[in-house]
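Sharing a chain and its predicted structure for anyone who wants a worked example. Both blocks are below, sequence first, tokens second.
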Amino acid sequence: MSAGMQEPRWLDAEQQRAWREFLRGSARVLDAIDHDLEAETGLSLNEYEVMVRLSEVPGRTMRMSVLADNLVHSRSRLTHTVRRMEETGLVVRESCPDDRRGVNCRLTDAGFERLRSIAPGHVASVRRHLVDRLGPERMQQLGAIMALLTDDEEDEADAAAHGRTRSTAPR
């Protein structure tokens, strides 16, 4: 090992077990919810999340770069998702009025109505695969744990700076 490089802090057996359970559990829950949504609506969880995020902001419009950051998607992945959604009339891309280099994504009225119609089934799936299995106390614990892994303070400041509030839209 060269000078300055330190031995990694390896996970102990309990940490390794917890890490693997996190990977398996999160993948299974997300796959199940995505499968339900796709089977019932033809939309992916990523497409649904785009619609939800847009439904939460004034004018149902958000700059593509901000939307990508909010969804933790690469810009190219979001562009492909939005292109598919545009083809079915759920969203439209428009030039930013205040910055012609930027592109906004807007949820159409048809997209908003589609979101409203499919939200109950999606929420039932989230309940079935996660919320009801954990129960209220563990669900609160999960939320607290996941909040440790995100920059909620930064997200709140960003939302306030852009005139947004916490979500009240169907999740």
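Comments welcome. The CA atoms of residues 34 and 45 lie 5 Å apart.
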